[in-house]
Write a structure and sequence with these properties.
Number of strands: 3
Number of helices: 4
Strand order of the largest sheet: 1-2-3
Oligomer: single chain
Helix content: 40-55%
Radius of gyration: 22 Å
Length: 86
C-alpha cells in the first residue's frame, strides 16, 4: 500500500494511477478524509453469465428446458447502433 497526501497525489496523478492499475492500493490522506485508489475487478459479461446459467442446469438450479431457452435467445455480439442512423 502506498500512502500520499492530496497535494502530492494531484501533482503526480499519472504515477499513482499507474500504481493502482498494477494492483497496488493508493491511500490519499487529505483534510476531508482518507481516500483509496484501487483497481476494481473486471465485471461479468452477458455471455459469461449465460455460460454460468447453462452450467447450473446440470447442478439442479435450472431445468434443462430453461437452459435451452436461454441459449436459443442469446444475442450475438454486435456493436450498438445509434437510433438516429438508418
Amino acid at each position: 500500500m502506498i500512502e500520499t497526501n492530496a497535494r502530492d497525489f494531484s501533482r503526480n496523478f499519472s504515477r499513482y494511477r499507474a500504481k493502482a492499475a498494477s494492483g497496488e492500493t493508493v491511500r490519499i490522506l487529505s483534510p476531508d478524509g482518507t481516500f483509496l485508489l484501487i483497481r476494481e475487478p473486471r465485471g461479468i459479461t452477458g455471455a459469461e453469465l449465460l455460460k454460468k446459467l447453462s452450467r447450473s442446469a446440470s447442478k439442479g438450479f435450472l431445468d434443462s428446458a430453461g437452459a435451452e431457452r436461454i441459449e436459443e435467445g442469446r444475442r450475438r455480439a454486435e456493436p450498438a447502433r445509434s437510433p438516429w442512423q438508418r
